[in-house]
Queue: 3 jobs
Job 1
Amino acid sequence: MLGREFRITTTQEYNNIYKNGKKIPGRFIILYVMKNHLDHNRYGFITSVKVGKAVIRNRLKRQLRNLVHQMDPDLAPGYDFVLIVRHHAGSAEFDQLEKDLKVVLGKAQPR
């Protein structure tokens, strides 16, 4: 579980990331990345009603939070990440989500 300091919470923060962040599309996920000038990363997860019913949306968010928790130590600190789940991700398997998240995070990280 991500603690409060690792979450993006306000609408204003989300809108700022959408406006000023870098957009990286993937097969099942759209990732927005922006530098946050903190010593840790923060994450936000968005699933729309188009993805499916609440059970499916919550399952996808749980899976993504788990993947982010596993991958966070390998990421450079100081960024905000907003993960938007695409409408067809409800039919994706866990390993497909994991692969797609690795691809978009790999594109997002500075070298």
Job 2
Amino acid sequence: MGNKVCCEEVKVQAAITFNDRDYLNDILNTEKELTKNMCTALTEASNKELHNELYSIFTNVIDLQQEAYELAWNNGWYKLEEAEKTKISQKQKEIQKKYDELSNKND
């Protein structure tokens, strides 16, 4: 399996119509888009009452997204790649450099 990190994949029948994996991927993508759009709505809410209502909906959406992700992960339908240590180290150095640059601008 190389550097892939995942659970054992539950096989689904390939067909023209959606199977369980297709439905779950569609749900995940929809919830990710909803989350992004809800963030925008939260930052642009015109009053506290509206903000609170949107925030309540937002927390429900991210909870549902997490449940869908866990289901996809447990079925082996969502895979991650293990990052190489050199790539992690390189990214840490890049972030530290940017942080240092920003810190120096504020001095």
Job 3
Amino acid sequence: MFTPDDFLKYAQWMGIGTIFLAVITILGFILKWGIRFRLVGTTGFMLVLTAGLFSLSLAPITRTVIPGATRYNLVYDNGSNQAVITVPLTITNSQLDATLRQAASNLYSYGRSGIGGDNQLTIRARVVLHPEPGVSVPLYIGQVKRSLLTREDENMSVEIFTDKLAQLTQASIGS
């Protein structure tokens, strides 16, 4: 995964290439080359790419890694204040807590808005049980609520539904 430092390095090299191409474009106008107008377009495009790479170097794009968290998949996100992730059937209580905290950190964005006025992002964790062939039952086993206003939320609330987690354990033993 690329880091902001990588993007800054790429932006610097693209900037050098853009300046070099701009010099060739000016030389093309002085010598009245037939390709001079294409060089203007290419130089402008290189300038746009350089600006894009530089802007990617300004914002951190790395994901938070919390020890003990398992992999999860985002299955629903309304882009505002609700999201649902799916976790493995073999998840434990401590892994679920760490996974919910990691998802809360990774899904935070300045662009989310709090519809409904509570300014809370709610992320629910679920698994899908198959009690019999052809039947799928979603089982929500936990949720986390965090602030939409601050990046570092000290009052993040993680709730694990222990009765549902026990039901998950019994279902995995029964199969």
